[in-house]
Specification:
Immunoglobulin-like, alpha+beta, single chain
């Protein structure tokens, strides 16, 4: 048994040594240089720097459309590409962005329109698909939405639906005198 294990070990040692020699002979010096250059520049991504990453519209009346412009600069060392911009919901629409590569040091912008619908504090995220190290970048908009004082009020009971009385009580609505709504 020991001889079989020893024999297999020797055979494996010879096989691995001969494969190693074949691999060395197949290496092309040009490929090594190209791989070294590629690896050196692999971390050289563009960097997007925004003038502001969150825009606060303040207090707005419900239903009042608003918009803002986000400005950004490529502060990296390679061209920046913004291939897509989308928002977290349909009430926020990004538009007018530069789809061409942005050289280092160049600036661009895009517009974000918000329909102003909602209640209280509202925050929306806009995501840019880019060729930066992370692949996506985000900006945010927010607003405090105040109810329109001129909007019709939906009261819990404005007389259009009957009032249900607790058991044992009679209705006071016209035409319902003398009987219960159990």
């Amino acid at each position: 048994m020991k001889k079989v294990i020893l024999g297999l070990s020797a055979l494996c040692l010879v096989a691995f040594t001969s494969c190693k020699d074949d691999a060395k002979s197949k290496i092309n010096e040009e490929n090594v240089a190209a791989a070294a250059e590629r690896d050196a520049t692999a971390g050289n991504f563009p960097v997007i720097t925004f003038e502001e990453v969150e825009h606060d519209f303040g207090t707005i009346m419900d239903g009042t459309p608003v918009e803002t412009v986000f400005k950004y600069t490529n502060t990296g060392n390679s061209p920046l590409v913004v291939s897509n911009i989308k928002s977290s919901c349909g009430c926020t629409v990004p538009e007018d962005w530069n789809k061409e590569p942005l050289a280092p040091g160049e600036s661009a912008h895009f517009t974000v329109k918000f329909n102003g619908k909602g209640a209280n504090q509202v925050s929306k995220t806009v995501t840019l698909t880019t060729n930066t190290a992370t692949g996506t970048e985000t900006v945010k908009i927010k607003a405090f939405i105040q109810a329109d004082p001129n909007a019709p009020v939906n009261a819990a009971n404005n007389g259009s639906s009957p009032v249900m009385q607790p058991a044992g009580q009679t209705s006071t609505q016209p035409g319902h005198e003398g009987h219960n709504h159990n």
